Amino acid sequence: MFSFTEALTPMLLEHSVFIKGDLTLPHFSLDSDRHIACAKTRCFVDFCNLLNLTQFNGVVNRNNNILDLVLSNTEFETTVHHEQFPLVREDLHHPALSINTFIEFPDPIPFPFATNVRYNFRKADYVKLYSDLLNVDWSFLDAHNDVNVALEKFYDVVYQILDHSVPKVGNRNEGNKFPIWCNKKIIGVQNIKMKLYYRKNGNAPDAIGIMQNSTACDD
Predict the structure, then answer these.
(1) Digit-coded pLDDT (tens) for 106-155
(2) What domain range includes position 54?
């Protein structure tokens, strides 16, 4: 048991964890006031305490023991109850369980649209650009132990050099809800799809039109 928990701990220590399975520890308990004689069980209790795991299964078997553990260190609501209609014949030592976990996912981050301005590299002063890049003393990055901070400082310098050597122009997509890589054909097909989709009469030609334009977008 010690080698098992020792191998798992570094992999799970900084993560949200769900552990569900038969660990065959009949005297397992996370009650700090309860004395545990079994060394293997004590080792696993220490492992659970280190990862801040909570045991959710309270369904006992015929011997009034709990062999199947449902452990987690998340704040998600988890419920466990005895399944009355198991798919296979029930093992009396391992009652069939119904486990429900309610996971809340953060709202998805919308794909960013193109910015209003962009670099016009066709009119860039490449002699100045290359010269400025060659003359940068990058040793200042050594002062940052955090790679994310160093990367941010690196890009600050790069963009400053670009601003001095590459003119900016208004984005041709300014005011457009479509990403910059959408050409006129794709935009036209998408607009037709939306018009067909929002029609209320629901006749067959509209449905056919939606399918045809969906195929065109895929192409």
Answers:
(1) 777 666 665 677 888 888 999 999 999 999 999 999 999 899 999 999 99
(2) 2-102
Give the Cα separation of 125 and 134 in Å (integer).
14
Return the structure tokens found at 10: 């570094």
Q: Is residue 11 located within the same domain as residue 64? A: yes
Longest CA span, the chain:
82
24 and 54 in a common domain = yes
Examine residue 109 and state whether it is found in any structural domain, yes or no. no
